[in-house]
């Protein structure tokens, strides 16, 4: 077959890069589990009508058809484009077998046929964490699920993240208190502050939404509030709007900010940013977007919020709150930029050298003894000169080479292990020798200075 | 939305069942890594012409199309139906960045649009382990990769597995030595011994392949040899056929059998079964099929072998040897039959009870202290009566409930932890208390008596 070129939008990782992704996923999963979240996986396909978002089927869905299907057969299945739609369906389908509130995390790929660009891929992995209730879901779960994601992401050796929170009740209450009728439309216009200057947005509020210039100004005043603590409450109050829903939103947002600040430590920013709306999605309370310092061009690397109706079967409604982290969106640019790399492309800590092909069993016995104590290793593929076997280990990043030699004078077997980075070679016993903890597994090498906790794990 | 019915052929696991699958995948991955195999993941799509097998595109491939594509647009991508085709493409595409021999394992879903039945799904997860060389790959890697899979599978608490090996050189050499011209066609006929009685197969050999009745009889004699050690060598020799390729095949098969027996211990059968051919695939040496006791109806639960040309770009050829284990094909029937189950559907070991909503911070502080020592836990969702909170834990299989109470007389905080299975309640310190090791994570509960090693892990 001919030379193969990559498929645009379907990035693939080399083994050392994949080691980075696996360590990140393992770290996130460990944190989610410590907080009592169970892992699930959903099938990758959903009926196409279920993939409809707000009644409209996303133009970028990939549909599936058996190659042997009749040419005019109607496609019925599509690949999921996020993990929320399949999770909502899973909850409805399996509700009778789940305990509520149901806490789950899910790390899987999703697919969108969009134009590939940095941070936007046709196949990409996400890590989602959600809590879903039956009929009701107390607000404290908003604080919980958001702090769990803060706790998970603060452990990663990546550039500084900023969790920017808002609350749909706060926005809606404020607009309602101001006397604006079409709250949804106003939110949609305010969402354009990312792309348009403030005065143009104000003009649109007046012309499209029908606000007075004074109302428009106060909407802008609200949208520009961005602080790292709960002082936003006073600043909103100072705008002189009163409304019950606004009060509720202020209280909820303050609780989320304080709860997340308590776990964020020094490595993650937590802010109230009253411009965040997550425009067209069906959030009903807490909303969040996550940004990464120096990578603002990726837009958000994660986001989520509260849905009062994550799923419903007509009789029962399942409210949910959750947040999603873009694993591919974050890691692939960081790996491409050399910010993250894997310490080696193989799990092996030790290459057991081979004297002659006839000695393969002796070398394999050493490998078996090391593996019995959870030390990953491999036997050299061929009895080449030792210099060549050492270079073989070097090219793979394997830090130690083990030699098994019969002493010429005594004819006793002598075991030695060489740290090929330093050249130090010492006598060793295969049933007791162990490498230092940090050599045991491939680790993430990061150019980002991380918290002491992470440095410990990755040095 | 209306009631949801499952999608035939796309099985999904409940959380406790998924815990079984995760533990199995973690156990397999751990063993593969101990043997120096690196994990990779490939994108799920391949160009349709690359999914062609022996020049013919599998009728059961799912093709992919953007929903917005023109109605007459030609589909170019399909979902992979195994992990070998994408691995071969990955090797060709990334060869410049890989070190050979390249040892990898891969655990991912694959898709086939076949008629769903027990053990046959439209989406199913496989675990593959392969070694691939550039230009050449010494035979000892056949022994290595097969013993690695034996070592990985013998650790699973599943019904007894049987690895049944053969060698294509042995078959081809034998047939050639017998004077049969069309070896491939003869193999294809012998492969029907599964379904047809021996005399019918003999007749087909005479009529279709053009053998003499005596040649046909010796083909059948070969195909009925099945032994658990290398005594097959003598039995083949006794059939009186001589051929160089036959000698090579006998030697290789004996080495594979002895190598795998050395790691199989008491929990896996290793046999030479000279009827195994893996008919239509392009194997050139070692072949293997794996069967599970009591589940013969699933046919093989895994298989693989040696390809002298796993991949080729015209200039360079990449020989490979590997074996695949059907994770879904094995686990889903075992879970459905109650042979395997998860010890609980949540990772939490401890539910921290809640006195009043105002005490949520105190309970959360206990949870944080436990998590700091890797003990998974969750705080009760509501300050219900303790009996109700204990039942909440019970329904989730959480073994411990933690109580934080102010002593009425001294006003001091008193911590207690209750094992709700035994009712034993003791004073405990959140900064030092730990559950017994076997309670720490959800484990696999198996009705199969397993090796002492597994019992330790799963009791």
TrEMBL record, chains A, B:
Enzyme Commission number(s): 6.1.1.21
GO BP terms, alphabetized: histidyl-tRNA aminoacylation
Catalysed reaction equations from the record: tRNA(His) + L-histidine + ATP = L-histidyl-tRNA(His) + AMP + diphosphate + H(+)
Coiled-coil regions listed: none
Region (Disordered): 421-459
Protein origin, superkingdom: Bacteria
Residues annotated as binding L-histidine: 82-84, 112, 126, 130, 278, 282-283
Any Gene Ontology CC annotation: cytoplasm
Domain named Aminoacyl-transfer RNA synthetases class-II family profile: residues: 20-347
Molecular functions (GO terms): ATP binding; histidine-tRNA ligase activity
Protein's name in the database: Histidine--tRNA ligase
Native source organism of the sequence: Nocardioides zhouii
Phylogenetic lineage: Bacteria, Bacillati, Actinomycetota, Actinomycetes, Propionibacteriales
